[in-house]
Write a structure and sequence with these properties.
Elements (H helix, E strand, L loop, with lengths): L4 H9 L4 E5 L3 H9 L4 E4 L3 H4 L10 H14 L4 E5 L8 H15 L3 E3 L5 H12 L4 E6 L5 H4 L8 H17 L3 E5 L3 H10 L4 E4 L7 E4 L1 H4 L16 H17 L6
Parallel strand pairs: 1-2, 1-8, 2-3, 3-4, 4-5, 5-6, 6-7, 7-8
Bound molecules: 3-methyl-2-oxobutanoic acid.
């Protein structure tokens, strides 16, 4: 049965952890979906897979192109697509971008970064228009030039600000919230306070689910954030395979 927003909320109530990962193409999406991942995110972190240094340059058209490929590989998981930087600056632009994502890719929801007042208003309008929205607070990489990539919510004031943003996002109607690189204690407070699921990344064990960037866990990224766990080293595996193939071609051992 395909995963729905209601199912995600029910899993929170049942304390059944939600497993989320990012995907950028058909093959990866198919593998993740068949392995039982609950939520697949076409995150704008894909910018790094495409060779950009930050998430800022990736365009809506690039996100749409990859999201369509991911969609073709996903049968069960709930599919969310990030709205990239500069595509939801005001309500009208956000509506236009989110509608394109849902119509053109077949994804079930969009994710937007930030919890300040104008963003809450934008999100409320998207939800009222029937667009499922996932929130994202704490470290928001699209604001890298304002807040850097450091852990958020360390001071009492900052922690209260993020908690209030999460509450406002729930009131605006998001079905889930990504909590990125905040203290485990703050993530626990938010998780207990909200009735929608929190999906943590570098936010400790108390969230309702966890998300990581797939190229990080597979050891494909050139560098990973400190909170990512590398489960296998595909860079090494691929290098060995390519070297073996190259040698066999040069020594005329392949094809046999
Ligand atoms: O872009 C992305 O991959 C994300 C995750 C890190 C949550 O937003």
């Amino acid at each position: 049965m395909p995963v729905t927003t209601q199912q995600l909320i029910q899993w929170k109530q049942q304390k059944r952890s939600i497993v989320a990962l990012t995907a950028w193409d058909y093959a990866i999406a198919q593998i993740l979906d068949a392995a039982g991942v609950d939520l697949i995110l076409v995150g704008d972190s894909m910018a790094v897979v495409l060779g950009y240094e930050t998430t800022l340059p990736i365009t809506l058209d690039e996100m749409l192109y990859h999201a369509k490929a991911v969609r073709r590989g996903v049968k069960r998981a709930f599919l969310v697509v990030d709205l990239p930087f500069g595509t939801y600056q005001d309500i009208q632009q956000a509506m236009h971008s989110a509608v394109r994502v849902l119509k053109e890719t077949g994804a079930q929801a969009v994710k937007l970064e930030g919890g300040y007042a104008a963003m809450i208003e934008t999100i409320a309008r998207l939800v009222q228009a029937g667009i499922p929205v996932m929130g994202h607070v704490g470290l928001t990489p699209q604001s890298i030039h304002q807040i850097g990539l450091r852990q958020q919510g360390k001071s009492e004031e900052d922690s209260e600000r993020i908690l209030n943003q999460a509450i406002a996002l729930e009131q605006a109607g998001v079905f889930a919230i990504v909590l990125e690189h905040i203290t485990a204690d703050l993530a626990m407070q938010i998780t207990q306070k909200l009735s929608i699921p929190t999906i943590g990344i570098g936010a400790g064990v108390h969230c309702d689910g966890q998300v990581l960037v797939t190229s990080d866990i597979l050891g494909l990224s050139e560098k990973q954030p400190p909170f990512a766990k590398v489960y296998t080293n595909l860079r090494e595996t691929i290098t060995k395979a390519v070297q073996e193939y190259s040698l066999e071609v040069r020594e005329k051992k392949f094809p046999e």
